[in-house]
Amino acid sequence: xxxxxxxxCTVELQALPSRIGQVRRIVSAHLRYWHLDALIDxxxxxxxxxxxxxxxxxxxxxxxxxxxxxxLDRLMVSVRDTDPRLPVVADVGKADSLATCGRxxxxxxxxxxxxxxxxxxxxxxxxxxxxTTPVVSARAAAxxxxxxxxxxxxxxxxxxxxxxxxxxLRRPEHAPARSAVVG
Length: 183
Hints:
Blueprint: E1 8-14, H1 17-33, H2 40-57, E2 63-71, E3 74-81, H3 104-111, E4 114-119, E5 125-132, H4 138-143
Antiparallel strand pairs: 1-2, 2-3, 3-5, 4-5
């Protein structure tokens, strides 16, 4: 049975500024592991904006769950919190050009293929965005085992260690004792 690595990650946290950076690093590490390096910047920016919204607006607490999942040709990123109020998207065209807030969801919309929000039961919501994954990379293709044909014969490659100095095998020398036991 062939088992593929998990394509799903869930992190529960308090949306505090110190934790947001940790989650961003976790998301980046998973995307590197999944060979999706091209999506790291956009996914990290999107998850940062969603967690910042939870930190600034969610009531009664800042508890939330971040979930990333790779589904065929899409990376889904979602943040679930316990505040049932749905976010309001500010009109960026009418916003003050010097404002320091109010552009988070507009940025998520700009970097993602699609995004949305849905109620989560009676007391909460899920805000999500999707990124299209790049075409299968050469690295992932190289990770697949080669196809064997009836005509092809694979010969083992022999590698020899290089010896730094010449050794005279006719004359025994003192050698230090070595153990095969680790530790």
